[in-house]
Amino acid sequence: MEASKRQIVKKSFLPLIILLLFFGYYAFYKIKIAPAISTQLQKELEKYIGTVFIICLSFIAQRIAGVFLSWYKECMSAKTASHLDDKLIPLFQRMAKIAIWVIALLVILPLYGVNISALVAALGVGSLAIALAAQDTIANIIAGFLIMIDVPFRIGDRIKLPSGEIVEVLSIGVRRSKFLAEDKSIVIVPNLDLSKSKIINYTYGEEKNADF
User: Fold this and answer.
1) Which DSSP category does 78 fall into?
2) Which of the 8 DSSP states describes residue 159?
3) Phi and psi of 190, rounded to 5°?
4) Are 98 and 172 in a shared domain?
5) pTM for this structure?
6) Cα 51 from Cα 49, distance rounded (Å)
7) Domain range spanning residue 109?
């Protein structure tokens, strides 16, 4: 726990220093520079100052999100019996980073006269096209999350696949899962096929019989 606290303080220190330095420079600009320049030049400079400020805030938000998720992984996730959060936290970290910088970009662009409404509409159409083109991949990812939540099998379990092979579970991925067959070959199956089909879990049955 103490190591986690030190890590949080260490990761939070640099963003805080950057924010304090920015406010210091901005106060110097407003007191010393702004009164000595024209209104037009002030508007131009404040546009760039706003850009730097948004980038600083985005960097700080990224670090805070990373610190929180790292703290959760080290302090909270390790105490839970489920391994679902261990697998999802790295994905959440990447998604949070992307979301923060996309929002920052959407805030910065209007400062330079870019029409955000048209850009958002174009992004929406592009996202729809990508979703249609990658619908099998998206379906496998959703199926992977459902498998992690429902837990029809765990790593190390002995199961029977829809194809009839009896295998040992090696890993449960976001898109595909890997199994070790009886002939020591590796079987890789899309998660969508696993979620749609009947799975026989011999390990669950053995554990149930052992309880009686």
Assistant:
1) G
2) E
3) -60, 140
4) no
5) 0.55
6) 5
7) 2-113
